[in-house]
Amino acid sequence: MSPTHSLPLLLLISLLLISTSTSSSDSDRVSGLQSLQSQSKTGIIHLDDHSVSRYLTSTKTPRPYYLLIFFDATELHDKSD
């Protein structure tokens, strides 16, 4: 097998090993995030104190998922500035 063909195979095997090595609590968290995203019309997940704790602060790094967090102030929604 040529080196150019073995690299994608090596990457695929690495991804499979990483995905199978995640703990059940990690897969539960990923499933929970996917469920929350599918329930949202826009795909955006709104976090409360409990979900911030579950998905952000109580997990070991590196996490099996990425978070992009935007903070919003409700009292600024009516301001056009």
From TrEMBL:
Residues 1-23 form the signal peptide. GO terms for cellular component: oligosaccharyltransferase complex. It is found in: Endoplasmic reticulum membrane. Gene3D superfamilies: Glutaredoxin. The keyword Transmembrane helix applies. It comes from the Eukaryota. Keywords: Endoplasmic reticulum, Membrane, Signal, Transmembrane, Transmembrane helix. GO terms for biological process: protein N-linked glycosylation via asparagine. The keyword Transmembrane applies. Its main location: endoplasmic reticulum. It is a multi-pass membrane protein. Belongs to the OST3/OST6 family. Subunit of the oligosaccharyl transferase (OST) complex that catalyzes the initial transfer of a defined glycan (Glc(3)Man(9)GlcNAc(2) in eukaryotes) from the lipid carrier dolichol-pyrophosphate to an asparagine residue within an Asn-X-Ser/Thr consensus motif in nascent polypeptide chains, the first step in protein N-glycosylation. N-glycosylation occurs cotranslationally and the complex associates with the Sec61 complex at the channel-forming translocon complex that mediates protein translocation across the endoplasmic reticulum (ER). All subunits are required for a maximal enzyme activity. This is Uncharacterized protein. It comes from Quercus lobata.
